[in-house]
Amino acid sequence: MIGNHHISQMKEQVVLKNINDFDNKSLLIVDDDNPFRERLARAMEKKGFEVTQAESVQKGVESVKAKKPGFAVVDLRLGDGNGLEVVKEIQNTNSASRIIMLTGYGNIPTAVAAIKEGAIDYLAKPADAEDVEKALLADPAKKAAPPENPMSADRVKWEHIHRVFELCNRNVSETARRLKMHRRTLQRILSKRSPR
The pTM is what? Predict the structure, then answer.
């Protein structure tokens, strides 16, 4: 099977740290969707975080001032403003805090702004507790650096084509049909050595 080992390698790069490795286990969840926030808070408490909840920018900022959270999950859109305000406040009080931004579908530019303000990641809602935990505890040293020599796009394409070819029991016509490629184009690619 060609290609499969690359896929599993990519998944395993994110190494999780343990919540017990952190002195400050306090987690602030700022979200105005009450049922979602409460459900997430309960799940995160079970995972060992000490959770504080806030349903607005104002409450979030007050909470940050009262207790510098080690972790935060902040919804971007809050009833009284933008969750980025809370992110900025957290960054000012504890720059080591690990902040995840929750964002509705299609808010990528704002999520990028959140990362510039100091969030470590963003998740699309509705994120579940597993996703949140993974994002909060991803070891920054293991995750942050992009690969020095990533596979070239041509190589990824080649791997993908060969994988489908193998899964089709090396049947060229079937592979071409599934990849929506011309049979001759496919044969040409299959006859070449793999690109670097």
Answer: 0.64
Angle at 103 between CA 146 and CA 46, to 5 degrees: 85
Q: Which of 45, 111, 109 is nearest to 74 (CA)?
A: 111
Rg over alpha carbons for the chain, rounded to the nearest Å, is 22
What's the CATH architecture for 151-191? Orthogonal Bundle (1.10)
Q: What does 16-33 look like in DSSP terms, one character per residue?
A: BPPGGG-S--EEEEE-S-
Residues 6+ apart with CB under 8 A from 15: 138, 139, 142, 143
pLDDT of residue 106: 57
State how beta strands 71-75 and 50-54 pair. unpaired
Sequence letter at residue 16: L
Q: Which fold has domain 14-143?
A: Rossmann fold (3.40.50)
